[in-house]
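Attaching the record inline, Q. Sequence:
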Amino acid sequence: MAEFYFDEIIKVHQVDNQVVYDKVSRIMARSEVEEFYLELDVNKEIYPMLPGEKYRMVITNTLLMDGSAVTSYFPEGKQKSLADKFEYVMHGLLYKMSEVQVKTDDGNSDAKVAVYVSFGGLQLLLRGDPLKVHKFKVDQKLFLLLRKI
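Structure, as predicted:
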């Protein structure tokens, strides 16, 4: 079975269409169960996302159902994959992780880990509890999958 590094329902709070590229929107969202904040660039022509909408977002290191590594290109429809269950899929590289201090509602600060992934120019910033992002490693190849709920 494929191992998920992140599997949450996210709710889009804001969409910024003023990013550098014409066809890109940057969404700002929060997860519903765990306390994750994320900023994600998406191709708005292929997969438009609007404030208030909810999505299932999964980050994993493989698309193969048995959890084995993707070693080569496999033609669409020839092999079952996780991508069959989602609407939008990106492949990228985790290039940076850092600890950040985030202000809490009571005025204190809380230590979080920021995970940065590049999907060929589209970026993901995922910020959350250090104990919940321990599976992530720098230079790791990852898949991000989205499906509207």
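The mean pLDDT is 90. The chain has one domain: 4-148.

More tomorrow.
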